[in-house]
What we know:
The chain has helices spanning 4-12, 43-59, 65-68, 71-84, 97-110, 126-139, 171-180, 200-203, 272-288, 290-312, 339-350, 373-389; strands at 31-32, 91-94, 117-120, 142-144, 153-159, 184-188, 207-210, 224-228, 318-319, 331-335, 352-353, 355-357, 361-365. By secondary structure, it is α/β, with parallel strands linked by helices. A 7-stranded mixed beta sheet has the order 2-8-7-6-5-3-4, with helices on both faces. The longest helix has 23 residues, at 290-312. The structure holds pyridoxal-5'-phosphate (PLP). The site of pyridoxal-5'-phosphate has 13 residues, from helix 5 and helix 6.
Amino acid sequence: MTSRADAARLDEQDPLAGFRDRFVIDDEDLVYLDGNSLGRLPRATRGRLLRAVDEEWGRGLVTSWSSWVDLATDVGDRLGAAVLGAAPGQTLVSDSTSVNLYKLAVSALDARPGRTAVVIDVGEFPTDRFVLEGICAARGLEMRTGDGLDGSVGLVVCSHVSYATGERLDVRATSDAVHDVGALVLWDLSHSAGAVPIELDAAGADLAVGCTYKYLNAGPGAPAFLYVRSALQTQLRQPIWGWFGQRDQFAMGPVYDPYSDLRRFQVGTPPVLGMHAVDEGVALVAEAGIDALAAKGAALTAFAIELADAWLAPLGFDVVTPRDAQRRGAHVALRHPDAWPICQALVERARVVPDFRAPDIVRLGLAPLFTRFVDVWEGVDRVRRLVEFGDHKRYPSALGRIT
Length: 403
Ligand SMILES: *Cc1c(COP(=O)(O)O)cnc(C)c1O
């Protein structure tokens, strides 16, 4: 069976191995397998934030707005090019994923008057379902959780990579099917941005949103991104009429007259420090290259699945992530009836940080920029030993405030 030395050999052959040193890692014994929930802090980001605070804010004060005012579109273009396969002028860094989802879902439905239904899978991330549920309640629309694509549907919302199972959808095939009934499709890229290639332009995607604090390592609460295909921009009008969407913003005019391009999807004053962090996170992904990152993510997840089959299946774990690397992202989901006690015990006793997703999934996030093959080996080995000894049995099965 694969030994730790075999894992170390895989690290020696890894062309991206050097990127680990670009992150702040102050505890080498901690096996962090949660980069898909909160990515690590890049060293460059720390430096950039210190400079932004001291020089731009501390010294420059309000005059620094001249360098901040276009960050949303400038950083958006760089993110679009490096991560989304998007030509300039279609990606904006703004607000949170939930808020961007609301903005784009309402815009899309306004552009499909007369359509009475939206489609979203029951297994979708809660905020996506809740935002849509609220929109449907306000407009008297039917929310379909499952199949049922027909001419009454105005919008389909789906994740490119499922937060729970890790399954990846084909953007082109799904977009084509949705377009066939005349609806628009809104992608949530939170678990694929920075992990796998996304060719939004080439695949004919309409709209997308996603987080930057996961595989893009921009830090807690960093602003999200949104994408609107250029052909749709003038047709769509978003529901939050803020002054950053206004064509002549500082004329302080009496009525809302939004930009005709992507900038109409801005709302208010952008979170500047977070924008700097997104820019650095994106620069690291661009430097490594998304294809190289995806290749490493495929190898790391394959290694985790191989070890899980050998060591964890006999202990009652089931791999729910697809075994075809083209059909998954960079995390592996393991189902186990004691998933929550196991996760608590892993963090407190085994120094492994996975995460738990209700009701019964242990998620191993293998962020390819900083996760090593020895981390995968150590992580799965510690899970095996912990469950063999029954260390998780003294942990409660009632869920905590944050899981
Ligand atoms: C993480 C995640 C979110 C988070 O949205 P926020 O507005 O940043 O809280 C949304 N959707 C998906 C699919 C996610 O994985």
